[in-house]
Amino acid sequence: MKVRTAPARKRSSGGLPKRGPAPRDDRNGARRGDTTRLAILNAAERCFGEGGFDGVSLRTITEVAGVDLALANYHFGSKDNLLREVIARRARIVHDERIRALEEARRLAGARSPSVEAIVTAFLEPLLRRLINRDQGWQHYASLVSQLDISPKFTVLTGDVLDPTALHFINALRLALPKAAPRAIYWGYMFLLGSMVQVMSATGRIERLSHGVCESDDIASALRELVPFVSGGLRALQTAPR
Amino acid sequence: MKVRTAPARKRSSGGLPKRGPAPRDDRNGARRGDTTRLAILNAAERCFGEGGFDGVSLRTITEVAGVDLALANYHFGSKDNLLREVIARRARIVHDERIRALEEARRLAGARSPSVEAIVTAFLEPLLRRLINRDQGWQHYASLVSQLDISPKFTVLTGDVLDPTALHFINALRLALPKAAPRAIYWGYMFLLGSMVQVMSATGRIERLSHGVCESDDIASALRELVPFVSGGLRALQTAPR
DNA sequence: GTCTATAATGAGATAGAC
DNA sequence: GTCTATCTCATTATAGAC
């Protein structure tokens, strides 16, 4: 995947669009193009989540969106950039909510550090709650992010968007686990990510392994195991011999 | 990815090849085609690991292998089947060694169950040890398996090969953690997988996050954190409120 | 902003000579 | 078993009419 500069859509040039008054097609005042744009964005999210970035073509995406093929490039410039915008849209929301949850945990803890459980929950809940609510868009987003997280090709892209969140929580964990070495905290954060990703990727594997005792899309149950697992794991890093 | 029946290579038809005596090209008695076959297998492993299954073409793979394009289909029938053989080759080895390590742990534990640490180590070590030794083939394999593990499209393929191992270790964990609910064990195994996958995928992300304190390819250090993390996490599942 | 049409390239797979 | 050549179809992206 080559990283290119985004062409086409000239919207951020500061002022108003050069053309005449924007045509409206619903009573909320959205421009006509915005609904196509949104349709492509949603279709791309679903297709990328199910098939992976390289496994899905713009043709498929625009078909699913019910729009013309050429509109993908018109609105997003390139497939790469479409992926970027798919990620950015929801990543912003999760980031903000995680930071707010972390601040709330700090407020509740007063002068002391929040517990590991509180920090881990502040990280996991904002995204997993939306999966518990069975929001399809978020489910596809979660599946996509999981795949990008593992793939060596996409770390640059995901890093730009996800690293700021990571640094906040690594810092919080450091304070909550004063006896753990920095190295342990960094790896611990990766393990937290990895465990979460297994829950988010919804591959259906746990159904097979458990003969139906567990279900990939029962995120509420998974979260009840995930928080103690990760918290217990992080605590164990404090006492590990080194 | 369509699952197809593998054509072309007629070797398993029971008897000897129909053609005359196999041409030899080295003193170990390998047939000429076997070295091409191996070259393709190795190139595919590397390319798939770095670019993902859909991100790499047979053209690229055969170029890397230094052989003609048509030979990929001649020897493996299809791209799908090539992937299958790439995985199967090493999965067998890891499976066998994991089972042997588990049996050894049982022998050492005598009448009691092996410790969680011993079970987790028996699972992790056979594969991670090869990464510690910086074996490039295994590194690419590990990266590939990590990606397949997350992708919804490939669970059927990976399941066939990897599920038997999983069931053995889930069973062992059940005995080592008698107070944990079955549900907790299944999810715990997934979290173990997820944490391991983060170590194996070697995306370089931890370098960025830790400003060089940790390194993606320092698997020995990662393993020293991974075993206590996972073991502590699994133990915490026993006492989790439900 | 949307459409038709097409450029330009790449994909997996195969037929047939050697 | 290997190679050349090619089939057939899909790919991203763009040009230009409306």
Task: List descriptors.
10 helices; 242 residues; 69% helix; disordered N terminus; DNA-binding; mainly alpha; Tetracycline Repressor, domain 2; 0% strand; 2 domains; homodimer; Arc Repressor Mutant, subunit A
Can you walk me through this structure?
Two copies of one chain form a homodimer. Chain A folds into two domains: 29-77, Orthogonal Bundle (Arc Repressor Mutant, subunit A), CATH 1.10.10.60; 84-236, Tetracycline Repressor, domain 2 (Orthogonal Bundle), CATH 1.10.357. The first copy, chain A, has helices at 32-51, 58-65, 70-76, 79-109, 116-132, 136-150, 155-176, 182-200, 205-210, 219-239. By secondary structure, chain A is mainly alpha-helical. Chain A contains ten helices and no strands. Helices cover 69% and strands 0% of the residues of chain A. The interface between A and B is large, with 66 and 67 residues.
Label the structural class of chain A: mainly alpha
Oligomer: homodimer
The number of E-state strands of chain A comes to: 0
Q: How much strand of chain A?
A: under 5%
Largest sheet: number of strands, sense, barrel closure of chain A: none
- C-alpha end-to-end distance of chain A: 40 Å
Largest interface: A-B, 66 and 67 residues
Compact summary:
Two copies of one chain form a homodimer. Chain A has helices spanning 32-51, 58-65, 70-76, 79-109, 116-132, 136-150, 155-176, 182-200, 205-210, 219-239.
SSE order and pairing:
Two copies of one chain form a homodimer.
Chain A: H1 32-51, H2 58-65, H3 70-76, H4 79-109, H5 116-132, H6 136-150, H7 155-176, H8 182-200, H9 205-210, H10 219-239
The structure holds a DNA duplex (18 and 18 nucleotides).
